[in-house]
Specification:
Elements (H helix, E strand, L loop, with lengths): L2 H21 L6 H29 L15 H26 L7 H31 L11 H13 L19 H17 L6 H17 L1 H14 L2 H8 L5 H10 L5 E7 L4 E4 L7 E4 L11 E7 L9 H4 L23 E8 L13 H11 L3 E5 L10 H15 L6 E11 L1 H16 L6 E5 L24 H12 L15 H4 L3 H20 L11 H14 L46 H4 L5 E6 L5 H14 L3 E6 L14 H19 L5 H14 L4
Parallel strand pairs: 5-6, 5-7, 7-8, 8-9, 9-10
Antiparallel strand pairs: 1-4, 2-3, 4-6
């Protein structure tokens, strides 16, 4: 994308709109036209100020890539997002100049959209200013301000006070693939609707009816939707996020996923009792190491897993495996399925750790792509349902995943595999666990996996400032407030002790009863319908859109100036819009987050040396992109085998969305290709290792 051509087109569009609206006296919509002129002049001013800034980034951002063949880092992404915003403005501006005199032209609607993008452009300008500070203050090639505590503190402070609602209303998801925008709108509307009903004592039917009524007004009024989403993402507690994201575990959604995904012949949930295991040492399989069951926080306890296999293989129907099964209906039996032909054990085994910020979801919500992997790779998949935070903080999840990995090595014959090749795979938090489980295997002296495929992994569990972390100000799926809550929960910090007293604008006080919702919905629907019939009629909710927009703009401007609270200084004459709903984001300062088994990017080389080949698949629009880039660079500098692939136009968590769009399907196929490369790559000395392990098993049958 030629940035110079984009800025030239923006200048032309702004000038054409201003000339059209100021030069013709016979145009209708007088007040609306004045608003549009004011907006276009603001956009023009932002564009002129941003042009040299973008040029300065494009001149240097390639120095922060992993390599020449893998362009991707937070600086590139910020420029890409800005240009995407400008392209939307250019498209809308050309539409206005071409259709302003049309009989069906909705002047207020188009003006509101242009004002929304003007607000978004203002905030993106502020983000690029913050990125300039990072570029100037960080060491050459470094993307994180790991040693600049003050800069990271100010980044959190800026996030807490900056206006974000514009990114969740009319501009929602403008930076992502167009095919995903309807899905993102559904998620945001669902979240704000769920937020209004969250905590209310309602029957299931009453809750559904209330959510339906609530969602209607957020469809009609995008500004209201943006404001509510901003409030919810900034200050609701961890239990809200756990309960909302765990909705993906509901019977309806999982049932639909199973219908739409690949059928499998084996889908067993297993529970392992907490008994010690013995495994051969990697250096000398004649010797063994003892692996204790998980004990952190709550003492010894079981580990839950799910076995998925597209084909029934030897061992998977054994009575020994069935003894671990907790599947309802009863586990699979060949005698009940005489038409199923049992296949020999696979030489491969895939062990999976799911994402969810360490606080939500299980293997059930990731079944859709796990079924696909099992079929495409023809491999058994063992997915670990580790305990979640904040009830079970670090290191419980790591202990359970490591224990499950060790048990799988000892009992691969029950899982339908000979484990000649074992691969770990995971997304987000699961990617972190893949790396740290492998580190723990190295430290314990046992066999390490043959490879890791980590999708958008979290390798630095802090709120340290980085260019891609700045995306948390505009990302509807991973806002900084939510990211900080997940990190602190995993670190064992009690979020309840961090929350300030909730003011009268809290969730409960803002919730309305059913009658008020009906009234709002009826009034909003009436305005929405009338906006089509009467182009001069405002298209908002209770107040005209122009009034709401102007009030918000005045309020933001009054609070935008730098003050004694320590806001970053911005160029003279410019300040970002400020929010009336301040966030309380606790900066991650707990020493645990610096533990290398929490943040592997901070691990010393001796803990990372010996890792298997690591294949990272990241997204250019993910707030965790710089985690992946810096971790891949660190491994490469050590001489460790590593690859990095950066996909475009997709959000964090794209694996769970792979059936929604062609772009997510392509990204999922890249993950499968990396897994296949791990499985198909020959291993030197494999037969010798297998023979020694067989000797160990014959002389040590227990465990």
């Amino acid at each position: 994308m030629d940035s110079q051509a984009v800025f030239d087109a923006l200048e032309t569009v702004c000038q054409n709109n201003i000339s059209l609206l100021c030069g013709a006296s016979d145009l209708p919509y007088g007040a609306v036209a004045e608003r549009l002129v004011t907006c276009m002049r603001e956009i023009q001013e932002h564009g002129r100020a941003l042009e040299p800034v973008v040029a300065s980034f494009t001149a240097v951002y390639h120095h922060y890539d992993f390599d020449e063949e893998t362009p991707g880092n937070g600086y590139r992404t910020l420029v890409k997002v800005l240009l995407s915003c400008l392209l939307h403005i250019i498209h809308k501006g050309r539409y206005i100049t071409g259709n302003y005199n049309g009989a069906f032209f909705r002047a207020d609607h188009n003006t509101c959209e242009m004002e929304a993008y003007c607000s978004a452009l203002c905030q993106l300008r502020a983000l690029l200013h913050l990125a300039q500070r990072l570029l100037n203050d960080n060491e050459y090639g470094q993307l994180y301000a790991q040693h600049d505590v003050e800069l990271s503190r100010r980044f959190v402070q800026e996030y807490s006070s900056m206006h974000k609602a514009c990114f969740y209303g009319r501009c929602l998801g403008f930076q992502f693939s167009p095919t995903l925008r309807p899905f993102l709108q559904t998620v945001v509307i669902s979240m704000v609707s769920y937020g209004e009903t969250y905590g209310k004592q309602q029957s299931g039917l009453g809750m559904a009816a209330l959510s339906l009524l609530t969602s209607g007004k957020y469809v009609i009024d995008p500004e209201l939707r943006g404001a509510e989403f901003e409030r919810i993402t900034q200050n609701l507690d961890m239990q809200f996020w756990k309960s909302f994201w765990n909705l993906t575990e509901s019977g309806f959604i999982t049932g639909f996923n199973r219908i739409s995904s690949n059928p499998v012949q084996v889908n067993l949930t297993l529970t392992l009792p907490p008994v010690p295991l013995r495994l051969p040492l990697a250096s000398d399989p004649r010797l063994s190491a003892t692996v204790s069951p998980p004990i952190a926080h709550s003492g010894p306890g079981p580990v839950h897993m799910r076995l998925i296999s597209c084909e029934l293989r030897q061992g998977q129907d054994s009575e020994e495996l069935q003894a671990f099964s907790r599947t309802d209906p009863p586990p699979i039996s060949v005698s009940h399925l005489p038409w199923v032909q049992k296949q020999p054990r696979s030489p491969w085994l895939l062990i999976h750790f799911h994402g969810g910020g360490f606080v939500a979801q299980t293997s059930k919500s990731h079944e859709n792509y796990l079924r696909s992997w099992s079929k495409e790779l023809n491999v058994p998949v063992l997915s670990v349902d580790y305990s979640l935070s904040p009830e079970a903080p670090f290191p419980r999840a790591l202990e359970e995943c490591f224990y499950a990995y060790c048990w799988a090595l000892n009992n691969c014959h029950l899982l339908g595999s000979t484990a000649e090749r074992v691969c770990l795979a995971g997304d987000s938090a699961g990617g972190n666990l893949c790396i740290t489980v492998s580190m723990k295997a190295i430290a314990s002296g046992i066999r390490v996996p043959d490879g890791i495929m980590a999708a958008y992994p979290a390798t630095l569990l802090t709120t340290d400032a980085s260019p891609s972390r700045l995306l948390t100000l505009i990302d509807p799926l991973l806002p900084l407030g939510v990211l900080a809550k997940c990190i602190n929960a995993y670190a064992g910090v009690d979020s309840r002790t961090l929350q300030p007293a909730v003011e009268s604008s809290s969730l409960s006080s803002l919730s309305r009863d059913t009658a008020m919702l009906l009234s709002d919905l009826t009034y909003g629907a009436s305005n929405w319908i009338q906006s089509f019939l009467d182009p001069m009629r405002p298209s908002g909710g209770a107040r005209p859109q122009s009034q709401r927009q102007n009030e918000a703009r005045r309020a933001f401007t009054l609070s935008a100036a730098p003050n004694s609270d320590g806001h970053l200084d911005y160029p003279e004459g410019f300040a970002p819009l400020r929010s009336e709903c301040l966030a309380f984001v606790h900066q991650t300062s707990c020493p645990i987050i610096r533990n290398p088994f929490v943040s592997p990017l901070l691990a010393p080389n001796n803990l990372l040396r010996g890792l298997p080949p690591v294949h990272i698949v990241a997204s250019a629009l993910d707030a965790l992109l710089d985690d992946s880039v810096m971790f891949a660079k660190k491994l490469r500098a050590m001489g460790q085998p590593v690859s990095l692939t950066v996909v475009e136009d997709l959000p964090h968590g794209f694996l769970s969305l792979y059936q929604l769009a062609k772009d997510t399907e392509v990204a999922a196929e890249i993950c499968v290709a990396q897994l296949r490369e791990i499985f198909e790559k020959p291993t030197h000395g494999l037969r010798k290792r297998q023979k020694l392990e067989e000797t160990f098993q014959s002389t040590n049958p227990s465990g």
